[in-house]
Write a structure and sequence with these properties.
Length: 93
Amino acid sequence: MTKITELQMRAKKGHSGRIETRPRALAAAAFAYRRVWEAACKHDGIPTDTKFAVFSDGNPYTKFIDNAFAHYAACRREYESGGYVGLEIERGK
């Protein structure tokens, strides 16, 4: 194991620093978001391949869309950064 002498990594906000998001987790989050989107579209009679939609007030799936997208976006950010979200590198002693 290589010892870090010039750089220190310091966790922010209690993040563990371990790689948490794998390709399978990212794919699962994307799949879940897509399924909720399709269900909301079908409920309102909107084609499921539409890029933008405004759902009716009575659509029961709209409350899940924001949560599903937020989870997918968080997984994507963490995956693209190599899993080290919430860390910063500083010059050390």
